[in-house]
Amino acid sequence: MDEQEYREQQRKWDEASLENRVGRWKQLVPAIYNTKLPDLLWEYVTEADEMYINGHFIGVILLCAGILELVFADQLKTSLKLTKDEVGRFRLEQMEILSRRLKILDEDEMQQVGEIRRLRNYLIHAKAGKINEMAKKRYKDWGIENHTLDSSLFLNPPWEGGLDQEAIKFLLFTRNLTVKFYGAEER
User: What distance in Å separates the CA atoms of residue 174 and residue 147, rounded to the nearest whole number?
Assistant: First the structure.
């Protein structure tokens, strides 16, 4: 494949995927924050939005788990009067346990945090070879070349709904938590 063929292939992919990206963009409601967010939180939340729009669902899930760590670290620092270094030693699971004890989150929120933590762990500790095998099998079954597809089409993990549904669920949950803790208003 030469450069011109590659450009044409990308142009076709852009045209074919445009409606999907616009549809995902429509699912996101902008949040306006009334207070300064912790370091990098705004950048991470907006990056997660862009990743979702562009179909990078695994990245959304992983980044949302990181955002939750930032949010919990900030809440625990305030609640327990800890330093940044002290809070930095906690993993998401430990922050989840402390948040439960301090009643920072309600039971539904705690359940969702547990789900995103487990899903993040599944994705982080997944065997790349296994995922690659899944992809090649799906591509072969479909009779198409593997380089022309969005990875979200082949990855059917052992959770319900598919990656796109999990990604939007956790993205909206994560955004709602930032709204809850930082006095933001949703339009």
Answer: 32
